[in-house]
Specification:
Length: 119
């Protein structure tokens, strides 16, 4: 079982930047996929960005594409989400997630989340 701990959230002004970090208790370099999700109050959880490890390819939700970069530091086993030009609609609790090392992108490991508020 892999535990994930997010950090880096906070309050920023519109147009500002944040870098979220995710520290897993076990290796996620071999996970089929890793990703970031967010959930705003009263809304459903939505995917923000993900990496499919075997093909080393990142995918982004259209609402954040061009403003957000997901990266996996395999040497230090940390997952990052760099967010720039933040907008009020980016306000949400952000979660990192990982699949196991099987053959499907099923996010089975989840962190507790870190709050991002854009004023």
């Amino acid at each position: 079982h892999v535990q994930l701990v997010e950090s880096g959230g906070g309050v920023v002004e519109t147009g500002g930047s944040l870098v979220l970090s995710c520290a897993p208790s076990g290796s996620i370099a071999d996970a089929y996929c890793v990703g970031w999700f967010r959930q705003a109050p009263g809304a459903e959880r939505e995917g923000v960005a993900s990496i499919y490890n075997r093909i080393r390819t990142a995918y982004y939700d259209p609402s954040v594409k061009g403003r957000v970069t997901i990266s996996l530091d395999r040497d230090n086993n940390k997952l990052y989400l760099e967010m720039n030009n933040l907008k009020p609609e980016d306000t949400a609790k952000y979660y990192c997630a990982a699949s196991n090392n099987g053959d499907r992108c099923d996010f089975v490991y989840w962190g507790q989340g870190t709050q991002v508020t854009v004023s």
